[in-house]
Amino acid sequence: MKAIRIHEHGGYDVLKIDEILMPTIEPNEVLISVEAAALNHLDLWVRKGIPGVPLPQIMGSEASGVVVEVGEVAHDRYHFEKGDEVFTVPIRTCGHCFYCLSGQENLCYEFAIPGETIEGVQAEYVAVPADFVFKKPANLSWEEAAAFPLAGMTAYHMLSTKAQVRPEHWVLIYGASSGVGSSAIQIAKAFGASVITTAGNEEKAAMALKLGADHVIRYDRQPIGQTVKEITNGEGVDIVIEHTGESTWADTLRAVRRGGKIVTCGATTGPNVRIDLRALFIKQQQIIGSTMGTRRDLIDLVALIEREKFKPIISKVFPYEQVEEAHRFLEEGKAFGKVVLKF
Ligand SMILES: [Zn+2]
Fold this sequence. Notes:
By secondary structure, this protein is an alpha/beta fold. It has twelve helices and 16 strands. The strands form three sheets. Strands 3, 5, 6, 7, 8, 15 and 16 form a seven-stranded mixed beta sheet that branches. Helix 5 (149-162) packs across helix 6. The chain is globular, with a radius of gyration of 20 Å. The mean pLDDT is 97. It binds zinc ion. Zinc ion binds at residues 93-94, 97, 99-100, 108-110.
């Protein structure tokens, strides 16, 4: 079977389409014939080189497809059958540590993301433990089902579990066109909150409004912090969904209101920020770290999808043979929403 692998870190040319052996399944696993697999920014970092990536590595964190073989336990206890249409959960956890048993599996000591520290899913066939396979919502295409889990559960966890978003809240969401941004806009609106987001050109701003954002700040021509203050009558927002880091940190501090929360899941422009602790405690603000999400978040997200309150946004679909072009497209920032490979 074919799989997208890297044997070394580097540019687009390290992405290889290799012929490798079909995976064999354990009793608790299902074998999935992959229809579609999504790209994430994580794919770019893994390709270029981050610590902990074993080589050679199969790329990719999330996929959709058809179950073609079912282990005995996956059948008897998890009720999977051949022919089931499914998508894969973009995390693997131990299932028995304190965090797993208390529903906080994104804190698991053995937390891993496929395509990073363990084998990925950008291949014609993947063997996946039944714990990490969900039935595909009927109203999603293969491409959509592959595209939403990682960014969607990240955004859902930040807004719901961490920030406890409510209808009265104003939320600032950075990067409307990113996977997390486009997911967070829809989730915040599903909770009834008011959304301010940011976009770098007219086309992306229009898309953000279409997704339900109440205000779009053109960060290429408007100061973010000051504009947020103007929109919110000088108060600022209750929640900032932050994944940009250093370059926008001053705006983030300016934008958040008294008692507000900054939830961060990334630092794309750099990890080192300054904070005046006196302002933090006097204004009683919170800075909260968040990574990925839980099975519970994914269940809630699927419910929003089935009620048509959340739609995965696909920017472009490439045949898997064109994985180099797909990486380039994602890296150049042209995408609004997700980049997906079709198998
Ligand atoms: Zn665990």
